[in-house]
Known about the structure:
Bactericidal permeability-increasing protein, domain 1, 27% helix, 6 helices, alpha+beta, three-stranded antiparallel sheet, 211 residues, 20% strand, single chain
Amino acid sequence: MAEQSCQCCGDRAQNATDESTADRWTPGGPVLDADLPESVQTAFGRFLGRESVETLSELADEINQHAEQDTISVDELCVSDGQTAHYGVVDGERYDFLCFYDAVILAALRDDPVEIHTESPEGASIEMRAVGTERLAVTPADAVFSFGIAADVDPPSDGKPNLERGYAAICPYVKAFPDRAAYERWAQSVPAATVALELADATDLAAALVN
């Protein structure tokens, strides 16, 4: 597979936000159908040119509708030209990514088990094992991941969201953390609307995005 570079996950300036982290956690139940925090609903809605997006399932449907192709392939993932802290190993082949979540999507695209490694913004190592879209086996067990978008994302100028611009606004805020406390520290320092979910559930969203 030819490697390609991707600018979607570049660092963005980090500034404190006012929202309480108590409002940035999904309630129990199926993760795709849980109501997102109001700030996340509004920010993703603005990116899509609508009032709000209430759930991850609704968001995945909207993204898929605006995708240029019906399905994505491994070649379209955000592969790095060099080694990174975010990678997946499948069949002895290592794929390095700029965003850890691409390794989760890799698992959704492959039938073989994928061993995934990532590091939190504070440098904690997190290990995952994925088989297709099954629930992830995660170490540490309390690990969570964030999903969000820049709080100042612009609405589409022509009524249709530019997905490349969207990835640039989303990828910096998709991170893994060893526990919820680590997520909360990070969430207070970034200029984004984010929500935290159990890392073991990360394959649910990946499956919705590739199907």
